[in-house]
Specification:
Distance between the termini: 154 Å
Largest sheet: 2 strands, antiparallel
Strand order of the largest sheet: 1-2
Oligomer: single chain
Radius of gyration: 58 Å
Number of strands: 2
Length: 222
């Protein structure tokens, strides 16, 4: 089985940390030696432990390698220095131009706000007037667009309400049409029956009245 992947983080255990440091340092120096031999390269490695102890490896004299490295770094810096200086000069000029533009814009803004007009000529005032009128037209146009949009939304809301009202009326009419209708002949029969029953009742009540028939002279009351 192969070894599992080790998470690269600080080893908290001091003993394990020292053991790992020793193994990894030896491995690093071994790889550096192999690189110098296989590729005929000058290799130097410096390692400081946590306690500050120095460990080093060099394929040749360490001092010569360090001296060569310092000379190479200085030569590279000297070669690149003119380019850096030109870049810094161009950047400074660009900053100066931007500052001047900002100052002009601030002065122009104050003039548009009606400030600092004492030093303006007639031509400058006319130009400011034209710019203000142009800005006002743009603002008014935008305001008109917003008003038109709001008006269209209100009209759409009104159409929705009218459609809802129409739908409710249709539902009410449909409910009325769905109600059962009593035939007219049945109503007439019911009415006649009620009338006949009423006549019979009246006749019966009339026939129930008792009458006595008396023949002779009327009785004189004292």
């Amino acid at each position: 089985m192969g070894r599992g992947k080790i998470e690269i983080k600080k080893i908290e255990n001091v003993t394990s940390r020292q053991v790992t440091f020793s193994k990894r340092r030896s491995g690093l120096f071994k790889k550096a030696h192999e690189l110098s031999v296989l590729c005929d390269a000058q290799v130097a490695a410096l390692v400081f432990s946590q306690s500050g102890r120095l460990y080093e490896y060099s394929s040749s004299e360490m001092e010569k390698i360090i001296e060569r490295y310092g000379k190479f770094s200085n030569d590279s810096f000297v070669a690149e220095r003119p380019q850096v200086e030109r870049y810094l000069q161009e950047l400074k000029k660009e900053i100066d131009r931007m500052v001047k533009k900002i100052d002009l814009l601030e002065v122009h803004h104050r003039k548009l706000m009606g400030q600092g007009l004492g030093s303006c000529s007639v031509a400058e005032l006319q130009e400011i007037d034209i710019q203000i009128e142009k800005s006002l037209r743009i603002v008014r146009s935008r305001k008109a667009e917003l008003y038109a949009g709001q008006l269209e939304k209100l009209k759409e809301k009104e159409r929705e309400l009218l459609n809802e009202r129409k739908r409710l009326r249709e539902e009410q009419l449909r409910e009325r049409l769905m109600r059962p209708v009593v035939p007219l002949t049945l109503q007439i029969c019911d009415k006649g029956k009620s009338t006949e029953d009423g006549g019979r009742t009246k006749h019966s009540s009339t026939s129930d009245v008792e009458t006595d028939l008396f023949i002779g002279l009327p009785v004189t009351r004292q």
